[in-house]
Amino acid sequence: GTETIVLAGTYRDASARAPAMSDVAIFHVQIPPGATWQHIVPAQHRTAFLYIRQGSGMLQSTELPVHHTVFFDTIPNRPSSIEIRAHDKDGMDFLFLSGQPLQEPISAQGSMVMTTPDQIDAAYQDYQRGYMGAPWDHAMSDAEWQQHVAQNPCQYKYSSTYGGDKPVMSKDDDSESR
């Protein structure tokens, strides 16, 4: 069935192991051919989008091709319902993100976005020291990326306080979430 891996926030009865510092949802969703994925975006989440990693599908009558980003219109103070159907041929694999606006100043430079220019400088220093994980080659397959990560382990790991680094599995009638 459909699988939803909860990286941040909550999907149905599954929550991410590590707490988020703001009201945000980040899911890795895998839909088998011909199946659907449904989600209710919380009323306070004013921003919602997804990026299609593999496969293709439909959102109502809108075609969702691979390597495209889809931004959703949300209505203030009202939950939004999303239903995506994977094509019969290849299924879909995408990242879904939504969140509540932080209402904070924004400072951006290159690939870094922070609150102040000083934080940008500190972030670049952390990046140059290797504190932000291994560089990512977007052209790698999932298997190549997993091998790359194994060869270049991150300095930060989930604490056992949050259940270690194994995902939680939660099932309902037609989908899986972890």
From TrEMBL:
Pirin C-terminal domain location: 27-132
Tree of life domain: Eukaryota
Gene3D superfamilies linked to this entry: Jelly Rolls (2.60.120.10)
Pfam families per the UniProt record, alphabetical: Pirin_C (PF05726)
InterPro entries associated with the record: Pirin (IPR012093), Pirin_C_dom (IPR008778), RmlC-like_jellyroll (IPR014710), RmlC_Cupin_sf (IPR011051)
PANTHER family: PIRIN (PTHR13903:SF8), PIRIN-RELATED (PTHR13903)
Annotated protein name in UniProt: Pirin C-terminal domain-containing protein
Gene source species: Craspedostauros australis
